[in-house]
Amino acid sequence: MKYKMICTDMDGTLLNTNKEISNKTKESIKRADEMGVHVVLSTGRMFNSANYYASMIDIKTPIISANGAFIRDRSKEEVIYKNVLGKENCKILLEILKRHNIHGHFHTPSSLFSDKLVFSAKIYDDMNKDLPEDNKIEINIIKDNWDEVFEKNEESIVKCIGIDEDVEKVKRAKIDMLKVKGIEVVSSYENNFEIMTNGVSKGRGVEILAAYYNIKPEEIICIGDNENDLSMIKFAALGVAMGNAPSSIKEQADYVTDTNDNDGVAKVIEKFILNSL
After folding, report:
1. Residue 145: its pLDDT value, please?
2. Rounded to the nearest 10 degrees, what angle do helices 87-99 and 167-178 cross at?
3. Same domain? 182 vs 205
4. In which element (H, E) is residue 104 found?
5. How far apart are CA 277 and CA 248, in angstroms?
6. Whole-prediction pTM
7. 204 close to 71: Cβ distance less than 8 angstroms
8. Per residue in 204-227, pLDDT tens?
9. Is residue 109 located within the same domain as residue 128?
10. Do 60 and 124 lie in a common domain?
11. C-beta neighbour count of 136 within 10 angstroms
12. Is 275 buried (19+), middle (13-18) or exposed (0-12) by CB count in 10 A?
């Protein structure tokens, strides 16, 4: 068997537009797992959120969350890798967000800090209604004591997201973010940008987990649909873009599969793992 690990993004990739994993995809993942292939979730989401979906498909491997800033084993609760933004970076990011009148969301693996219950904060808050306690996200709405938040959570804030309905405003703010030294800036949708500390990416996360399992890059498949997936798509021997991905992502992939609403991930597993023997 050529491939020993397959890393898949979640939103726009593993999940369909209803934020569900199809039965066909679940079955293909189960069969790949039974063959000894490590199936890994690699997502921009917080660990708690990703862990809920991993439990649905009984994935036992560690989860790459926060775009690679936090990697944790599901069963042993072992933190394999963590790289925080740091309080000084957080202060700089908040100032830029305020300057552009964009709501910021600062993430730990299990909690979120924002100035208003909108966008990601609202989405996670709504999701909490149906989640078991150990997978819920702690939502914190902060008004004016951000310095205290950054001080208390300096060792746990791994990512910041800026989101707004005004795409052009987001683009202008992203340009300013890209001027800041010591951070990584990528987008998962056209109306957002996600910020981690320098050197953090999904590609680096896959590299760390590959070393953890002693797996070579040529034994890895990575699947994604957006800018924050590019680093892992380029790292893997087989980098796959979803059929619903922008053309800029498809052009840099080795293979383009079907869309997330047409079992694109399942079709990759079937073609390159289940039917490759």
Report:
1. 94
2. 140
3. no
4. strand 103-107
5. 32
6. 0.95
7. no
8. 999 999 999 999 999 999 999 999
9. yes
10. no
11. 19
12. exposed
pLDDT computed for residue 160 by the predictor? 98
Tell me, what CATH number does 185's domain have? 3.30.1240.10
> 127 and 72 in one domain?
no
- Would you say residue 276 has pLDDT above 90? no
Place of tokens 């709501």: 103
Do residue 223 and residue 155 come from a single domain?
no
Position 115, amino acid: D
**Phi first, then psi: what are they for 237, rounded to 5°?**
-60, -40
Neighbours of 156 (CB within 10 A): 16
Same domain, 75 and 95: no
Domain identity same for 99 and 188 = yes
Which of 45, 36, 39 lies closest to 7, judged by CA?
39
Range of the domain at 109: 87-197
Which amino acid, one-letter code, is at 26?
K
Query: Do 18 and 37 have their domain in common?
Result: yes
How many separate domains does the chain show?
2
Cα–Cα distance, 228 to 216 (Å, whole number)? 22
- How confident is the model over 83-100, as pLDDT tens digits? 999 999 999 999 999 999
